[in-house]
Amino acid sequence: MALTIILFGDEIVRMLGDMRLGKIVILLLFTLISGVLSKEVSLNEEASERRFSARQVFDYNQPILFESDFGGQGFNKWKLSEDDRYGLAQANPDRLRIVDAPGMVGGIQAVRFFVPRKPNSFRTEISLPSEKGFNERWYGILSYVPQNWKVDPNEASDILIQWHAIPGNWRSTYPNLSIRINNSNWQVGQNFGSPQKNPERKIHNLDTPLELGEWVAWIIHANWSPGKDGLLRIWKEGEQVLDKRGANVYGTIGKEYTPYLKTGIYHPEWNLNSDARKKRYEAEIPGISKKETYVCKVIVGGENATYEMIASRLAFKKDEHSEANSLSEKPKAIRDGLKPWSFVSIPDFLNFDIEYPQKGWEDALGFIVGSMKKENPAFAMVAGDLVMGHWGTQKQDIDKWAEKYYPGWVQRFKEHGLKVYAALGDHEIRDNPWRGTAADAVPFYKDAFRRYLKMPPNGPDHMKGTAFYWLHQNVLFVSVDVFEEGQSKQGEIAAGVTGKQLEWFERVVRKYRPKVDHIVVMGHTPILRPVRTFSSSGMLTVKGRDSDFWKTMVQYGVDLYLCGEVHAVTCTQKDGIQQVAHGGLIGRTTKPNYMVVTVHDDKLELNLKEIDLINGTGRLWQKDKSKGPWDTITITKERKKRGFTSIGKVTINKQEDGKRFDAPTGFFLEKDNP
Predict the structure, then answer these.
(1) Other CB atoms within 10 A of residue 324 CB
(2) How far is it, in rounded angstroms, from Cα 463 to Cα 496?
């Protein structure tokens, strides 16, 4: 435009009739138009200021290609995205802003990511550009999930870090790699191969659970490749949690790109881009109103970087009065002001092979599970005996019956919106005793339990998925597999926690004891005796109070041991530990019960509750069991109005001068024990 005016300047002068005046006018017009052009260029630059190329961001002359701590840099060289909008020119401070890093000293800054729960509010992220070619890269990230994070009981995961492919001739839907939260556990997701023919999809449940109020250092080493030379290694807090070889990117999208890094919060289920998602959104369990996380440092290294280079740059100094931690020091997880929360316990639920739905049972079962849900628990704990489990000794038969009964058991809790943690009971491994072929079949039974219950795979190597632990708020929970190889009255299984499992158990409680307020342990068989029994073989943990397992619990200050097996209530307190044997056997008992535990920072409030049940007159068929459960179970309208009623309470008080068991009533009174 300016060039046009210069070319036609003489014509304008002639039109004006005065050379001097013409030149002045030309100068004015040029200045005006140049200003407009300048403004247009500025606007265009602003609109595209988040469009960075790899060479503008990464320094390829150094082993560390990129490092951002968000202090003086802010969002420089980061692309911004919110929901379905990408390449934003500016951050929305309600969703994305730089703040003082929680729990860090020295003016360290962090990015706060926030996603409120509302329709089509599902993403707040920042991202780096992709790089051409499949390259070897190192990544370091410090992430933080605040203490007020609520464990989401719904199905979807929350992606905190992901590496995405650039679409080529096929738009890839899923990231090649993601680190995410599922309920209260960390997961790693992988997608690779051919998206046109459905990509390979893998989920890796990490051995370490979600920590709230703690900075977590992630180090990732990836050789991005669609072939056998692919490599993926991940360290969390200095501990390697994943080591995978082979393909890890899409190899058929028409372009070779190193997946680009994104971090923040992405909750796909709140993206209502389909009728199915709209229905799921409307049916979600209430209570989750937001998602909030923080990131304070991101490092990208090239093929010449090392683990030590990344780890040294992730080190930071913590505020001794905060929730935060360093790589080597982790303070107590919970601070003053923790809001009370609860969980429920119902061992031996159901202890029979029951279909879902089960004619003649659903009204009563729905009321029982619904009553637990009304306690607003974070989750339910079932200390074993989910099924009858008399499924023979051949793997194909065990798999057949497991497929018939386990999915319904799991779905019953899901449809009531209850997260459940289940221990292994004797009926999950065919029922006692175990001799000969029955003992040989135990590994098949345990494998079926692992597949369908999907408990955290963080136990000892020989018991992953049957022995496990998890953290929630200020409590460590450990579920043990008491069915170990050995000689006892039960044959070739001896109930207890010994050897490698005991070593694992001690490592877990030793590690987390300084960081939590309480420890709760769940196992199927009672340890302290005597205990009441009803329609039970009354199997007990070998050696009882003299076992090394009990002594280890005493040593590390375990507060509560939950067990089942005996189908009756006995509450016993010894050595500072409260054992509660109680539970279900619904279909045979007339008084099913559950316990609700309310958690504070300095106490646990226990309340046992039961209800009256009327059993039918016929029997339901059970495989290899002549006397099955009653064909119907009923709770009268009058009894429903009263609901579950308390049959015993106690408060475990944790004071500076020691632990006290205060205000016991009902079954918690020692004089009422057998």
Answers:
(1) 26
(2) 13
Question: Cα–chain-centroid distance for residue 9?
Answer: 72
Give the model confidence (pLDDT) of 374-401 as tens digits: 999 999 999 999 999 999 999 999 999 9
The DSSP 8-state label assigned to residue 457 in this structure reads S
Q: Which of these, 517, 497, 524, lies nearest to 597 by C-alpha position?
A: 517
Res 316: pLDDT: 53
Q: Which amino acid is at 189?
A: G
Among the ranges given (330-339, 472-481, 569-578), the one the predictor scored with the smallest mean pLDDT: 330-339
DSSP 246: S
Distance (Å, whole) CA 369 – CA 382: 12
Q: How far apart, in whole angstroms, are the C-alpha atoms of residue 61 and residue 43? A: 33
Query: What's residue 196's pLDDT?
Result: 87
Nearest to 387 by CA among 357, 346, 427, 422: 427
Burial classification of residue 450, based on how many CB atoms lie within 10 Å of its CB (0-12 exposed, 13-18 middle, 19 or more buried): middle
Between CA 366 and CA 343 the distance in angstroms is: 18
Write down the pLDDT at residue 556. Answer: 96
Q: Which residues of 146-199 form beta strands (DSSP E)?
A: 158-164, 177-182, 185-192
* CA distance linking residue 63 with residue 47, whole number of Å: 32
The one-letter amino acid at 659: K
Closest Cα partner for 324 from 103, 100, 474?
Answer: 103
Of 572, 574, 552, 554, nearest in space to 563 by CA: 572
The DSSP code sequence of 618-660 is SB--BTTBSS--BS-EE--HHHHHH-SEEEEEEEEEEETTEEE
- Which tokens in the block code for residue 509? 């409680």
How do 131-132 and 593-599 pair as beta strands?
Answer: unpaired
How far CA 461 is from CA of 153, 203, 445, 500, 504, in Å, comes to 28, 19, 17, 9, 9
- What stretch of H or E contains 40? helix 19-47
- pLDDT at position 461 is 87
User: What is the tens place of the pLDDT at every residue in 448-462?
Assistant: 999 999 898 789 989
- 150 secondary structure, DSSP code: P
Instruction: In whole angstroms, give the CA distance from residue 528 to residue 31.
Output: 93
User: Is 101:108 a contact under the CB 8 Å cutoff?
Assistant: yes
Residues 627-651: tens digit of each pLDDT:
999 999 999 999 999 999 999 999 9
Contact 223, 139 (CB under 8 A): no
Dist CA 566 CA 527 (whole Å): 12
Here the tokens at position 612 are 């009256």
Token pair belonging to 535: 């329609």
CA 56 to chain centre: 36
